[in-house]
Amino acid sequence: MRRAVASAVLLIAVVWARAASAADVTVTITGVRDGLGVVRVAICPRAEFLRPHCPYVGHGPAVAGDVRVTIADVPPGVYAAQAYQDANNNNILDRNWLGLPKEGMGFSNNAPMRFGPPAFGDAAFTIGTANAAISFRLRYFTGRP
Q: DSSP character for 66?
């Protein structure tokens, strides 16, 4: 019984320490075209960048102009953020027959997209233990979806 209690206390201490060192990251997305759907944001470590399941995600209702999304409990490290306006709220970045995004998208540091998504290093930023704020813009490659 003592061993079980000690294990539980240790587990709680580890979880608390991790939460205490994690930061909330407020992401301001600029250049949102209109109020259709939601703006989805993901903060990804290198291994999950450009993959569908980044571990730190959030979303907010789209409004023309700026949208702020806060993502809680991001551990210290190097990340890249990606966002898109999910105008039809289908949880997918829709593309046209050429593969161009039909919905606005963007990356942290306003990383350049030259014939495809940016490299992780171009979008990378560091999160410490204090709450953080970043901002970047959406870019639209086609007319309205």
A: E
In a domain? residue 126: yes
Question: For residue 46, is it within any domain?
Answer: yes
User: pTM here?
Assistant: 0.82
Which residue reads 């995600």 in tokens? 57
Domain total in the chain: 1
The token duo for 68 is 């702020």
| Contact (CB, 8 A) for 129 and 19 | no
Which of 112, 133, 135 minimizes the C-alpha distance to 65? 135
The Cα–Cα gap between 82 and 32 comes to 14
pLDDT tens across 43-92, in order? 999 999 998 889 999 999 999 999 999 999 999 999 999 999 999 999 99
Domain residues for the domain of 32 are: 23-137
CA-wise closest residue to 39 among 65, 80, 69: 69
Give a yes or no: residue 99 inside a domain.
Answer: yes
- 79 domain-assigned: yes
